[in-house]
Amino acid sequence: MEINGKHYRSVWLADDGTTVEILDQTKLPYELEIIQLTSMQLAATAIRDMWVRGAPLIGAVAAYGVALGMKHDPSDEHLQKCYDELIETRPTAINLKWALDRAFSLLQGTPTEQREKVAYTLAEEVADEDVKLCESIGDHGLELIKEIASKKPQGSVVNILTHCNAGWLATVDWGTAISPIYKAHEAGIKVHVWVDETRPRNQGLLTAFELSSHGVPHTLIADNAGGHLMQHGEVDLCIVGTDRTTAQGDVCNKIGTYLKALAAYDNNVPFYVALPSPTIDWTINDGLKEIPIEQRAGHEQSHVFGLDENGTRREVNTAPKGTECGNYAFDVTPAKYVTGLITERGVCDANHDALATMFSDLL
């Protein structure tokens, strides 16, 4: 997508054809910094320390990480090491395992002297596929926004609430939950986005950064404001992303998503979840019992970044000294609170039969 008129993907190969480049998302929206990944270990750090984040992007960077590993050492032992180190970086997002399983399976049957080339080709395929999947999600989600717009007085604005960042910064391009919004904006539909700040890492700032870059009207709100807006008819629909979706349609997304779903359910506001098929974990059914919830360092909860009066990016502590902080990164929204799932193949109900019908070839 665009930053100051220049097109970027969230991950790409440098001019040398082997170095992987990413945007350091821990510096956004205040600083635009490109980081070069030259080893599998750096790719693992990028995922673990959230230089990159978002389930689809994590999967793509993991695939590139394997390629970097094969460049260094294409042996069976090192292939296993790459898999083991990368799989431990983020436990909740299933796209990570999906990409690593795909790479591991392919490279196991590839002669060692060909593994580097094959791994880079696969990583490029994973990235390109994600772009196509996300654009298709946008096309199908656009139809939902069109339908809502058609029922409002002519010229009215469609108000959409989202949580966390599920735009192009969370994928390779386009995004999941934000892709339909980009499509609607380009189609001339008047849209306005309520952007949850999404504590504690404030990924809503990334969404605001994206929308601002594309001229999409939006308002950044405190996480707890969404229910109030729904009660007063200020939200026409919610669209969020997901890091893992069960075979029964439960969705696991950034902490706070469940509360938005409850508020939407209570106020008859449609609550949609946008996801590419690699985000579906067909091996589990009960999201509450079976999805591992990542718990991150308390420092992320007690400290925030911002700009001081001189425009310098600084970190400050907001918690009383000695306070213990709990930092649960995700929660699970049961399928019964999800109006529908927006996928690259269309919109379906959030249940096993609907998912199995739409993706029968993947079961």
From TrEMBL:
Q: Which residues form a coiled coil?
A: none
Q: Where are the transmembrane segments?
A: none
Gene Ontology terms, MF aspect: S-methyl-5-thioribose-1-phosphate isomerase activity
Q: Which Gene3D superfamilies match?
A: translation initiation factor eif-2b, domain 1, Translation initiation factor eif-2b, domain 2
Q: What reaction does this catalyse? A: 5-(methylsulfanyl)-alpha-D-ribose 1-phosphate = 5-(methylsulfanyl)-D-ribulose 1-phosphate
SUPFAM superfamilies per record: NagB/RpiA/CoA transferase-like
The pathway where this protein functions is:
Amino-acid biosynthesis; L-methionine biosynthesis via salvage pathway; L-methionine from S-methyl-5-thio-alpha-D-ribose 1-phosphate: step 1/6
Which Pfam families does this chain map to? Answer: IF-2B
Q: Where is this site: Transition state stabilizer?
A: 164
Q: Tell me which residues bind substrate.
A: 53-55, 90, 203, 253-254
Where does the record place the catalytic residues? 243
Q: InterPro entries of this UniProt entry?
A: IF-2B-related, IF-M1Pi, IF_2B-like_C, Initiation_fac_2B_a/b/d, M1Pi_N, NagB/RpiA_transferase-like
Please state the Enzyme Commission number of this protein. 5.3.1.23
Keywords carried by this UniProt record: Amino-acid biosynthesis, Isomerase, Methionine biosynthesis
NCBIfam families linked: eIF-2B_rel (TIGR00524), PRK05720.1 (NF004326), salvage_mtnA (TIGR00512)
- Chain's role: Catalyzes the interconversion of methylthioribose-1-phosphate (MTR-1-P) into methylthioribulose-1-phosphate (MTRu-1-P).
Q: Check the record and name the PANTHER family matching this protein.
A: METHYLTHIORIBOSE-1-PHOSPHATE ISOMERASE
Into which family does the record put it? Belongs to the EIF-2B alpha/beta/delta subunits family. MtnA subfamily.
Q: What is this protein called?
A: Methylthioribose-1-phosphate isomerase
UniProt organism field: Vibrio marisflavi CECT 7928
Gene encoding the protein: mtnA
